[in-house]
Amino acid sequence: MAGLQFRIHLDDVFFVLFEQMHLQDRLAPVEKYADFDIDLYKATLEEAARVATEVLAPINATGDRQGCTLDSEGNVTTPDGYIEAWNIIAEGGWIGTAASPEFGGVGLPHNIGICGTEFFGAACTAFAMYPGLSAAVGRVITRSGVADLTHLLAERIFTGQWAGTMCLTEADAGSSVGDNRCRATRTDTEGTYHLQGEKIFISGADQDLTENIIHIILARTSDAPAGTKGLSIFMVPKFLFDNDGNLGERNDALVTGIEHKMGLNGSATCTLTLGMNGPCKAWIIGEEGDGISIMFTLMNEARIGVGVQGLSAASLGYEYARSYAKERIQGTAIRDYKNADAKRVPIIEHPDVRRMLMVQKVYAETMRSFLYKMGMHLDLAHHHPDKEQRELSIQFIDLLTPIAKGHCTDVGFDCTVQALQVLGGYGYISEYPVEQLVRDTKIASIYEGTNGIQAMDLIGRKLRQNNGALLLTWISQAKEKTERGLQEGFEEAKALDKAIDHLGMTAMHLGSLGMQDQIEIAMLHAVPFMNMYGTIVLAMEALEQASVAKKLLETQPERKLLRGKLQNLKFFVHQLLPSAIALGKSIQSSDASPLQADLF
Ligand SMILES: Cc1cc2nc3c(=O)[nH]c(=O)nc-3n(C[C@H](O)[C@H](O)[C@H](O)COP(=O)(O)OP(=O)(O)OC[C@H]3O[C@@H](n4cnc5c(N)ncnc54)[C@H](O)[C@@H]3O)c2cc1C
Fold first, then answer.
1. Which of 9, 37, 45, 317 is the most exposed place for a label (fewest CB within 10 A)?
2. Predicted TM-score of the model (pTM)
3. For 2, how many CA atoms within 13 A lie in the half-sphere containing its CB?
């Protein structure tokens, strides 16, 4: 059997961006994007897909097998091909795709950056962690400023001369960020500190890709209050530097260990020890106590970015499974089950294999639709001239970020497992790329706030925000869409409308549990609620896509992609949406059995 080929589904990407969302028109009022048109967007995406296919995909399996190594001086070596890939990514402007040209970026819409995240993440997630985190660090620096170093740092980071890391986690402070103990002591020079402590699980805390690394570190001053309020955020370079960016002596921020882990082996996951042998020099970002609010400015984007990892994995897994199923010959067609001499068929003819493929196709395509829309709203929220539009986009992002991160990474992982199942035993062996995809994808439900924490954020904060107004607005807009769907002849819109009502009732039920001081029971049902809501959100995308496709098919009946969108809606509503109704019933039972004392 021929090897499974890496492929980016550019047809669907273009359909979502330019035929469904009309990105070119929605962003037209934004002054900074005025010079960009659809041709430029398409050419950029084609180039991103080429880089993903020709540069990153080839280093994916070798990087997994080789992993990273650490020497006794705290220097990490990345797998073969990573340095060359970094140089190509940096020179191509793929680190600062959405950053302002003023800071060395390309200045393209955030939405285009999200597409790059999908393509590069699919090609080699482990590698993509390095530029992804660098871009996040660049954003912290440009938004919040670091004394008079902002330009110098941002330019070097967005152009890939230096890289960046985000350092939050400590051994006893993972989900509970407020328990961070890393200490910051003021020095005689205003704005500078010495840090002492240990961060764990830090992605890319050392590597051989760049001459310098900028760590963004959460720590607390000795007189700071307990919890998140007492946290400040600091810029800590690996090498100190002068006003022109020339490198000087090594700072005392040293990698003292790297993890051996389930996947993502080309990404060095490091223990970073601060101030062990000498001063670890740090510059404060913002003011003391601003740590969490600064992290919050980045949180939605970072979480949507991790959600996109779920999409990358689902989409690539589907491509692998589909191409395998077309070639793998096994058994006869079910209608010939009595005929031992019947022709042997490719497994894609077996109904159960088609069901598994459909699950992956539908989820990949609806997640793409949903997550790209989140990307577009990031652009509108930051840059649209109309205040009302900015507000609407901010609310949309606020409400749905836990779904983007939590639901899409769970679904993405499940899809990789389905892809593996399509390959049977060959899926389980490392000669085929799907087992690595499963291993590399699992982490997305854990970092950037575990999915349990996302679900708690959804029901504990987002549903209650503005007295529930965010959800109510979403529901009324969704019901307008189902009504339109019915008018357009989509019978499936009826079931969707009922599911939306059921969602509203279930949210009210959770709210009443909170008011009756039964917060533990509410939280017990947080993840099921996130998955119920997520399922309905994605089903709504299937409806919207079917509606767009139906109109386009009138003049372009030959397009298979469009016909597929109509089947996607049917499949979603009949075979996936019922799980949302079941989850709602389960949540409304208020079952509290896991909370009984002495149970485990
Ligand atoms: C490969 C990898 C890369 C990483 N990269 C980085 C990085 O670059 N920078 C960085 O700072 N960190 C990084 N991390 C750390 C990651 O963000 C943490 O692992 C994650 O936040 C979870 O923390 P924890 O592992 O301590 O788990 P815990 O917080 O101990 O959670 C364990 C379980 O308990 C649940 N739980 C915990 N608290 C609660 C609560 N209050 N209510 C309900 N449930 C709860 C969680 O949902 C989870 O299921 C990385 C981790 C890995 C494995």
1. 37
2. 0.97
3. 9
Task: Give me 529's structure tokens.
Answer: 């609620």
* Alpha carbons 316 and 327: distance in angstroms, whole number: 17
What's the rounded Cα separation, in Å, for the pair 574 and 565?
Answer: 14
Question: pLDDT tens string for the chain (600 positions)?
Answer: 557 989 999 999 999 999 999 999 999 999 999 889 999 999 999 999 999 999 999 999 999 999 999 999 999 999 999 999 999 999 999 999 999 999 999 999 999 999 999 999 999 999 999 999 999 999 999 999 898 999 999 999 999 999 999 999 999 999 999 999 999 999 999 999 999 999 999 999 999 999 999 999 999 999 999 999 999 999 999 999 999 999 999 999 999 999 999 999 999 999 999 999 999 999 999 999 999 999 888 888 999 999 999 999 999 999 999 999 999 999 999 999 999 999 999 999 999 999 999 999 999 999 999 999 999 999 999 999 999 999 999 999 999 999 999 999 999 999 999 999 999 999 999 999 999 999 999 999 999 999 999 999 999 999 998 889 999 999 999 999 999 999 999 999 999 999 999 999 999 999 999 999 999 999 999 999 999 999 999 999 999 999 999 999 999 999 999 999 999 999 999 999 999 999 999 999 999 999 999 999
User: Relative to the CA of 166, which ligand 1 atom is closest?
Assistant: 9
Contact (CB, 8 A) for 492 and 570: yes
Return the best residue to mutate from 68, 165, 259, 450 for the ligand 1 pocket (most ligand atoms within 8 A of CB).
450
- Phi, psi values for residue 463, rounded to 5°: -65, -30
DSSP state of 93: T
Helix, strand or coil for residue 99? coil
**Is the shortest distance between the CB of 198 and ligand 1 below 6 Å?**
no
Cα atoms in the Cβ-side hemisphere of radius 13 Å centred on 434: 30
Can 448 be counted among the known catalytic residues?
Answer: yes
Contact in structure between 551 and 383 (CB atoms under 8 Å): no
Find the 170 Cα to ligand 1 centroid distance in Å.
10
Nearest alpha-carbon partner for 313 in 435, 431, 429: 435
User: In one letter, which amino acid is 27?
Assistant: L
Q: Which two tokens stand for residue 396?
A: 């949309």
Nearest Cα to Cα of residue 414 among 354, 359, 485? 359
> Among 319, 435, 448, 544, which one carries the catalytic annotation?
448
Contact 268, 258 (CB under 8 A): yes
* Closest-CA residue to 545 (of 521, 564, 524): 564
CA 324/CA 315 separation, integer angstroms? 14
The alpha carbon of 172 and the centre of ligand 1 are apart by a number of angstroms equal to: 10
Cα maximum dimension of the chain:
88
Pick from 115, 283, 268, 126: which is nearest to 203 by CA?
268
Atom of ligand 1 nearest to the CA of 203: 8
Closest by Cα among 76, 170, 19 to 552:
19
Q: What are phi and psi of 585, to 5 degrees?
A: -65, -45
